[in-house]
Amino acid sequence: MRLRRTLCGAFAAILVATLALVGALALVPGSARAASQGRVEMSFNNDWRFWEGNVSGADAADYDDSEWLYANVPHSTIKYTPENYYHEDLGVFWYRRHFETPETVQDGRRALITFGAAMQKAEVWLNGEKLGTHEGGYTEFSCDITDKLAPAGEENVLAVKLDTNPNAAFAPGKNNPDFQYFGGLYRNVTLTVTDPVHVTDAVSSGTVGGGGVFLATTSLADDHSSATVNAKTEVENSGAAEAQVTVKTEILNEDGSVATETQSEQVVPAGEKITFSQDVTVSNPRLWSTDTPELYTVRTTVFQNGEVCDTVETTFGIRTIEWVRDSGGTACLINGERVHLNGTNLHSETYMLGNAVSDDVVDAEIKRLREYGFNFVRMAHYPHSQAFYDACDKYGVADLEAKRQDNGSAQWVEISEFTASGEELSALLDLEYNKVATASSCADGVTPGDGNEGNPAKHWVPAADDAEVWWMVDTAGIYDMSEVQFT
Fold this sequence. Notes:
The chain is α+β, with helices and mostly antiparallel strands.
């Protein structure tokens, strides 16, 4: 009996140790696989320190923050209650995070810290050195920290100062908009480590109509027997010598099998970026629509001298979409078929958490809307988190990008690409290019006849490339569409 108990105890100990190891690997999604493929992504959501109010010297690495509050992100500086509608506690807030330099950042590998959003003017420092300032609280931004990190295993301090006070330089630009805009590091923060040869980040690349992996359904046979998908992959070589690079693009079915694939090769000079443009044909494609939200995974693999140096997976749906005006009114056609859209308005907030909404909560909210019979949502009045668009793709909820236009304050329209709002709009285009649920876009307050309806994207960002704004179709009279209902 004692021997049996001893063996059972030993087996239990081995099982617990095994589960603990599996759990540790799971803390960094894809860590085991990413190590062999070059790209490693680490969540920086936990272990932040927070201070309400402005303090002097908090950007310094040796500043004593031991008395600060502990916080995890997503985190809001303001709690949403009916009594706090007009943001009486807007102001300056600080966040700091201590972390050791990962062993993965060696041998010329690049490190990029990405903020899903920070409300609303953010200044960022690493080890006392300022990385930059981002104005606008709705879009993702990144900082290259490769040359700013301490040696592997040593401590770093990341400091972020947020100013939530209204600023006329960017939307909403006034004290009391008719929606909440809260404060805080309210979306995910991620550290990404890549090899010198890697797929670029879509936003920080700065390439108009490019950067990262851009996907588009360029043709669909009338009988839906085949579709052509164009994949534009931007590869950067931050190394000291030119690199012979091969990019392989695979479109994977739901079960992981390969539906189709292609690859091409180019020389990427040192310090430069090259875009690989590839067309792949999918036979008998499973088409995305609001009733059948079929999705594929596009796996992009980058090889240097035959060795894998980066892999990126992108969720994508094959579909065509257009808005038409005929005798029956204005209609939305998805894959050539008229679709009746029944929708509602959606803000990025929840009671008592403000804008600090987790990805799981977002997914559940979109799922609930679909279960209630909605297949359309107006994303007011600003870019939402990636989780919103992912959920719309997943559950078959078409979305309208509604960008705020306030007379006498910061606006999303009549801006140049050099303004803060212009940078936010450009980031939105970069991030949402591959989202098949995005059906259209408009500016709040734009009405037919005011000169904005011809091409709102061109009006917002005059220098934007057609490839970057291809899905932003004419939406004049959106609220009069006979095929759209708002509840």
